[in-house]
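FIELD: query
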Amino acid sequence: MTQPPFALPPKKRRPSGWWFALGGTLIVAAVAAGIGLFAWTLAGFLQTDATVRADGQPHRVSVGTDGDRILWFDETSTMPDDCSVVDTSTGAELPLAPVTGEYRRSNGTMGDWVGVYRFDPRSGELEVTCTGRYDQATVEIGKAPQLASFVGGIAAAILIPLLLGGTGFVVIIVTGILFATRAPRQEPAR
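FIELD: result
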């Protein structure tokens, strides 16, 4: 009794070159997402709602009401000892609380800034009066950083690019292996 000859199944075809493009696109998206998420996370910390002169005169400003605000002082030219913030819609002076921890930032051109006082902006329509050491002294008002959103932003800036880049890397490796071990694609007959 003779057995029929063993026939090998047809070899599978190579994957399309578009799979390499997909992997590369995912890696580029990972880099862009990492940069974008990191910048977005830090933008809230560096954003300023208003800047007033620390000349002892009241200055009217409008700030956001979506959370506490911080008074930032240029540590070389202003003294945070004499400062008041009044809600113009009620006429009430807002309590200024010292910040918990140490908040410092630098914008490169204006020197180092220190967050000293934290307050609830209530209506957001404020009258700010501060006194500084020099005529050109300024005080900035900006949103108070939230630890949970900052940590979440940093985690997203790490995890999302890692996921996208890792997926792109795996797609390129698997596509390369399949491309090297499979038969070439045949052109369709005309």
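FIELD: remark
The chain is about 35% helix and 30% strand.
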